[in-house]
Amino acid sequence: MKQNLDRHIQSKHPLLKLPDIPLYHKNPRQCRIAPTKEANNYKNCNEKDTYEKATWTDPILAEKRAKELGRQQHWRLKVVITEEISRSYHGKMMEWLLQNDIGMYK
Fold first, then answer.
1. Residue 106 falls within a domain, yes or no?
2. Could you tell me if 41 and 17 are in contact, meaning their C-beta atoms sit under 8 angstroms apart?
3. What does the H/E/C string look like for 31-95?
4. Which of 9, 18, 44, 88 is the most buried (most CB within 10 A)?
């Protein structure tokens, strides 16, 4: 079924690239909610990615910048996480968070 869905998405939307969300190995119909090694390393490191605080804390500027980075339909994946949202993952994009720690807000 997943192959059919993948084929359908690629045939109807060839430019569409959604984040690769890790699946639970015992049941591939469920997402794995444990953080990846990359997420744990980033959470524990002292040097976080830098981001333009003035841009990403203002909702209007953040939306405009995210739309520049991503396509019109999927711009929300390109929003950068600020310190107000997460002390652990600030500086990373929502797309990265979905791929590396989808269970953060379980």
1. no
2. no
3. ECCCCCHHHHHHHHCCCCCCCCHHHHHCHHHHHHHHHHHCCCCCHHHHCECCCCCCCCCCCCEHH
4. 88
Which parts of the chain sit beneath pLDDT 70?
A: 1-25, 28, 31-32, 105-106
- DSSP category for residue 30: S
Domain of 42 in residue numbering reads as 2-24+31-100
Tell me which H or E stretch contains 11: helix 2-12
Question: Does a structural domain hold residue 105?
Answer: no
Residue 22 is classified by DSSP as: P
Our count of domains for the chain comes to 1
